[in-house]
Amino acid sequence: MQQIIEQYRSIVIQLATPYSTGTGFLLREEGVIVTNYHVVQDNRDVVVEGTAMPRQLAKVVFSDPRYDLAFIAAPALATNGVQVPVALLGATRQVAIGDGVVAIGHPFGLKFSATQGIVSSVEHLQDGLPYIQHDAALNPGNSGGPLVNSLGEVIGINTFIVNGGDSMGFSLPVRYLAESLELWRAGGGQVGTRCENCGQAVFERTVEDGYCPNCGAHIELPSEAEVYEPAGIARTIEEILGKCGHDIRLARRGPNVWEVRNGSASINVSYYEPNGLIAGDAILCDLPKANIQPVYEYLLRQNHEMETLSFSVRGQEIVLSLVIFDRYLTLDTGMKHFRYLFERADFYDNVLVERFGAGWKEGV
User: Fold this and answer.
1) Quick one: pLDDT at residue 94?
2) Annotated catalytic, 143?
3) Has this prediction a pTM greater than 0.85?
4) Catalytic member of 45, 64, 68, 135
């Protein structure tokens, strides 16, 4: 299983929109990233990122609400000469209770995660569709990722969990993905959707004023989704990040969450609307493996000297944080505080590595 997990590392893609985060996986021969429809719903473009795919916007080219599937046009890969593996689609008729499986994805916005389990049922009916039930742990953000068998074949698309259920995950059998791919191919790869009413595929060249030409039901093509516009404090935060030089479309990580890079530091910005708290957490380097006391002493001295920022340690990560309440946030105050956070984050990252032997974060 370890070899299989490593095989999928470069083709399991992290997805983000202003509304949610999720997972997809690359079908290189088709030129698309497969995911769940509910991950990309109401979006024309999605932020995609993987080990061989730098963070960028990619277009949603097909949606299938009936099977909760969607396809995203795959950007060019930055392979640096490394061979990217091909995802193999298995045959779900061969799936049996007790088979070993691994669910791969990006839960809670983490960069990569894989959990192992076994198949509990191959015919769990939900809304008229049979799902593969298994006990490989799924969490928010896993949606759209592959369920892989012991042969390294994709046998399902991880779709949902049962709230309160103990390790009960459900994956759409891959045969439904094959059906959706066939519908999309028939349209010549154009932007399209599947009509939930009649099940036929409708494309930009065949849609009739927002209605299905086959049955007359109202449909919405991915290209017709409204462009997201933030409001209130979220709008102010995005304006601040934009004026600090960051592409805000690439920064969005779900409702009221943003992630940007500044120099060698990764900064997560979150707005907790119920209590009015805005937090900027710059994830710096990792603690050194030895001689840690001088690092703690340095962090404590800096905490005493700084007024608006503070250091903390989470696990092995050193974090520099900024906290503001929304009632005090204006464009001017936000620019001042966040620019200072970005500047100090890049500065301290270098100091901690070069002077105290801290470790650079992976990928820096």
Assistant:
1) 83
2) yes
3) yes
4) 68
